[in-house]
Design brief:
There is one protein chain. The protein contains three helices and nine strands; from the N terminus they run H-E-E-H-E-E-E-E-H-E-E-E. The relative contact order is 0.10. The chain starts with a helix and ends in a 32-residue tail after the last strand. The longest helix is centred in the N-terminal third of the chain and has 15 residues. The protein has a five-stranded mixed β-sheet. A two-stranded parallel sheet has the order 6-7. A two-stranded antiparallel ribbon has the order 8-9. Helices cover 18% and strands 28% of the residues. The protein is α/β, with parallel strands linked by helices and 201 residues long.
Length: 201
Amino acid sequence: MDETLKEIADYIAASRGDAIGAWSITRGELTMTVAPAEIVSFVRFLRDDARLAFVNFVDICGVDWPSREQRFDVVYHFLSPRHNTRIRLKVATDEVTPVPSITAVFPGADWFEREAYDLYGILFTGHPDLRRILTDYGFDGHPLRKDFPLTGFVEVRYDDEQKRVVYQPVRLAQAFRDFDFLSPWEGTDYVLPGDEKAKTG
């Protein structure tokens, strides 16, 4: 399998080496880093080249690296049924620099790019309808960023008195949290409910 991937990588590098920053084969998977400005033409090349035929678009996702200047990776996955192989493409970007949309090449990328925008705040130019897809329209922030608070900013609930959905700031009732921090393998110093009849000694 690695030999096939190496042949594919060498062919792509010889044909479109100007668009590739780096590539590697790890654990039987080919990964290529692509310049953002080249992503649309590169994806079209992977799809239309008869020798490659990466005609199946699998998905797009985001990865957050907060310590990097370009904190996001946009990761694309494609499948070539002809070779029964997959390829992963990575494009690095930041919070304000948009990545060209590949919806003109693979229309199925539409909702995946919307998800990356919604959950990470990654912007895509040329997208036909870039708006939130999983969170509410008034949602503040992007929940899969590593600097997003685990509790969020607001809680949503239905108020029976007002007969409508209300938004309130998150309040954590710390008084009701009682952690014993004991390992379940060591056991507790007290009897857990339901263990009263357990044999002791």
